[in-house]
Amino acid sequence: MTNESVKENLKDYLLKHGVRNNFIAEKIGISNTSICLFLQGKRLLSEDKLNQIEELINKSY
C-alpha cells in the first residue's frame, strides 16, 4: 500500500459516497488540513494512517 494508491482510493470513496474530508480526518485523528494536503499530493501520511483510511473505506463498502 502506497500513499498514491490510498489517495486514489480515498478520492473515489469521497466522490461515490458524498463524504466530506473532515469526516475522514476526524475518524482517523488528524486535521482536515492534513487530509486536504494529502489529497493534493502535498503531504504524505504514515503507514498507520494509511491503514486506518483503508480500513474505514473497506468497512463502508
UniProtKB/TrEMBL annotation:
Q: Which organism is it from?
A: Clostridium muellerianum
Q: Check the record and name the Gene3D superfamilies matching this protein.
A: lambda repressor-like DNA-binding domains
Instruction: Select a single GO molecular function from the record's annotations and give it.
Output: DNA binding
Q: Which residues form a coiled coil?
A: none
- Known InterPro entries for this protein? Cro/C1-type_HTH, Lambda_DNA-bd_dom_sf
Instruction: Quote the protein name from its UniProt record.
Output: Helix-turn-helix transcriptional regulator
Q: Which SUPFAM superfamilies match?
A: lambda repressor-like DNA-binding domains
